Amino acid sequence: MKQHQVCADDINQIVTAVVRRLGQDTLIVVCGGLGPTPDDKTREAIAKAVGSPLEIGDNVWVEIQKQLEKLGVYCDHSNRFQAMFPSGAKVISNVTGTAPGFSLNIDGSKIVVLPGPPSQMRLMLSEEHSIPPVAGMRERNYHWTLIGVSESKVGTMVNAFFDGVECDIHYLWKAPYVVVQVITPADAPLSVQQLVNFGAIKPTS
């Protein structure tokens, strides 16, 4: 990695950071800012940086609505913004979240734009760019932050789901949230289907 830069939720700051690297680096990875709220500026910034207008992906919007319904999350009209991409971009599916990523090839550089949550970002990047696990890495870490469910109920639900899976599970109560950490061996990561199924389960009463 040649350079790592942190930007504020500011379109011009993100544009400047990306434009400086175009043509200089083979791969530019941008993480975060793909949500539906007003402070999510990344897609607008990338569109401005590469000079391509944002376009709605109708099929992607349908899939986002299905994913939100599967997760039991209310679909607001603002979520439609998550289905907008710079013209000519390749959409990167997000099977564990609601924010798809996208990639573009500009001036000899490949720009890969991904959501911020690490578990989503790593999975999408490895699939998009065929990046293998880091040499010597002994484990894979997955994190989920849940709200509206007691720690005891989360523990029962998660332990039942991962019964028989080679992993360590840890819980952290940070009112009103419960943070779940699942650790697997590096050579036995959770499958995409396991991540999809886990994201779709609902606590029983």
Automatic annotation (TrEMBL):
<dbReference type="InterPro" id="IPR001453">
    <property type="entry name" value="MoaB/Mog_dom"/>
</dbReference>
<feature type="domain" description="MoaB/Mog">
    <location>
        <begin position="2"/>
        <end position="127"/>
    </location>
</feature>
<protein>
    <recommendedName>
        <fullName>MoaB/Mog domain-containing protein</fullName>
    </recommendedName>
</protein>
<dbReference type="Pfam" id="PF00994">
    <property type="entry name" value="MoCF_biosynth"/>
</dbReference>
<dbReference type="InterPro" id="IPR036425">
    <property type="entry name" value="MoaB/Mog-like_dom_sf"/>
</dbReference>
<dbReference type="InterPro" id="IPR050101">
    <property type="entry name" value="CinA"/>
</dbReference>
